[in-house]
Design goal:
- The protein is mainly beta.
- Helix content is 6%, strand content 52%.
- The chain has one helix at residues 101-107; strands spanning 3-7, 10-13, 18-25, 32-39, 46-52, 58-60, 68-73, 78-83, 92-100, 112-113, 117-122.
- Strands 2, 4, 5, 6, 9, 10 and 11 form a seven-stranded mixed sheet that branches.
- It is globular.
- The termini are far apart.
Length: 123
């Protein structure tokens, strides 16, 4: 059973930083993507960042490039999202997701999801 458990959300002032963690288990497939999607109230979900397991390549949405960094600790089966220079528009529920990378690229949807963690950035 695939499980994704997020932690690290919270309330921070604009310009501040947070680090999200996603502890993953139960993977049985190759060529997967693991990363983060966010959804703000009244808005469509937005792919924030992911790592391609086959080559370690990373992807970032234009809205977070230069501010967010995704990384992984394979020994801990954990993926991190370091978020710096946070803006009020980064406020959203952040979901960790994982799945077959071709499916994610085609649909923007992961096969498996965590429960989500709230990130609130005050102005």
């Amino acid at each position: 059973e695939v499980q994704l458990v997020e932690s690290g959300g919270g309330l921070v002032q604009a310009g501040g930083s947070l680090r999200l963690s996603c502890a993953a288990s139960g993977f049985t497939f190759d060529d997967y993507a693991i990363g983060w999607v966010r959804q703000a109230p009244g808005k469509e979900h937005e792919g924030v960042s992911y790592i391609n397991s086959s080559d370690g390549a990373t992807y970032y949405a234009d809205s977070v490039k230069g501010r967010f960094t995704i990384s992984s600790d394979d020994a801990k089966n954990t993926v991190y999202l370091q978020m710096n220079s946070l803006k009020p528009e980064d406020t959203a529920v952040y979901y960790c997701g994982a799945g077959v990378i071709s499916h994610y690229i085609q649909t923007g949807l992961f096969d498996y999801w965590g429960q989500g963690t709230q990130v609130t950035v005050s102005s």
